[in-house]
Amino acid sequence: VLSGGTGSAKFLRGLCKAVPPEEVTVIVNVGDNTTMFGLYICPDVDTITYALSGILDEERGWGIRSDSFNFLSSLRTLGLSAWFNLGDKDLATHVYRTMKLKENVALSQITHDIAGRLGVRSRILPATDDFLETRVLTDQGEMHLQEFWVRWRGAPAVKGIVYLGADRAKPAAGVEDALASADTVILAPANPITSIGPILAVKRIRETLQKRGPRRVAVSPLIGRNAVSGPAGKIMSGLGLEVSPVTLAKLYCDIVDTLIIHTSDENLKSDIEKLGIRCVVANILMRDSNEEKRLANHAITA
Ligand code: GDP
Question: I need a surface site. Which of 159, 232, 233, 270 has the fewest CB within 10 A?
Answer without folding.
Answer: 270
